[in-house]
Amino acid sequence: MLSGCGALIDRATSNFAADLEQAVVNYDEPMIVERGLPTFLLILEARLQANPGNARTRLTTAELTGTYAGLFAEQPQRQRRLATRALDHARRGACDAVAALCRIDDGDFEAFEARLQELPTAAVDEAYVLGTVWAAWIAASSDDFRALADLPRVEALLEWVAERDPNHDDGAVWLYLAVLNSQRPPAAGGRPDLAREQFERARRISQGRNLLIPVLMADEYARLMFDRDLFVELLEGVRDADPQQDGYVLANRIAQQRARDLLDQTSRIFD
User: Fold this and answer.
1) How far, in Å, CA of 159 to CA of 131, rounded?
2) Which domain holds residue 189?
3) Based on the domain organization, do 134 and 187 belong to the same domain?
């Protein structure tokens, strides 16, 4: 009986975490999310203390912690601490869900690639969470060369996801790959030509509903290529778009504010 009650509580916690995630992405006031989300993160952390093996709750906690770190943690040290916590949850949750993902980054890059090819296709969701949270951790640790050394592994992991499910997360898997290819100039191994294709593919799959895609395309790709016209075109399109898109309301509100801020900086960036 006690075992049955525990399983019921675990399912309720997992359902709550999933419902919380949906409520967050569709909330249209970023300030409320910024102030309220930490309380719910603590609740999820408490449930994980009670049942550390709940993979679904741990992965959702990783995503929400990473989201909070990326969107609202302005101090670099705070952002890095939160991103590190999110990555720890992602690694543990992915391992609990799929044994083949346990300690997947041990060894050299060739060993990592070999282990990727052994992953079951059913591991796409867990691999994607791990890859995206890992990428966010690298972004928060950009001054650490050891973190930057993980970029090829993250790119390979996300490419594995994209190959098996090209429309995953409404095409956002291509957004992550595009940003990775925009952060390095060609001389350092970057592929801006490929990045543009990936940005466009992400926009096409999401049918333009995710306004973070053109914002990042402007901020990462257009700036890298010093393309002022594309920069302005993308950001003006975001500024004038309807943010009320299911699953993207919060992100779109933040994207529009970022677009306005970047447009105000156009002369400084390109002159």
Assistant:
1) 10
2) 166-271
3) no
- Does 199 score more than 70 pLDDT? yes
Task: Say if CB 196 and CB 189 are below 8 A apart.
Answer: no
CA end-to-end span of the chain, whole Å? 70
Q: Contact at 8 Å (CB) between 156 and 112?
A: yes
Q: What is the pLDDT of residues 230-269, one digit of tens each?
A: 999 999 999 999 999 999 999 999 999 999 999 999 999 9
- Are 171 and 139 in the same domain? no
- Tell me how far apart the alpha carbons of residues 237 and 233 are, in angstroms, rounded to a whole number: 6
Exposure of 226 in the CB half-sphere (CA atoms within 13 A):
4
Residue 130 to residue 238: CA distance in whole angstroms: 29
How far does Cα 55 stand from its chain's mean position? Answer: 18
**How many Cβ atoms sit within 10 Å of the Cβ of residue 156?**
14
User: What percent of the chain is helix, strand and coil (3-state, nearest 5)?
Assistant: 80, 0, 20
The pTM of this model reads 0.90
- Is 65 a residue whose pLDDT tops 70? yes
Do 130 and 115 form a contact (C-beta atoms < 8 A)?
no
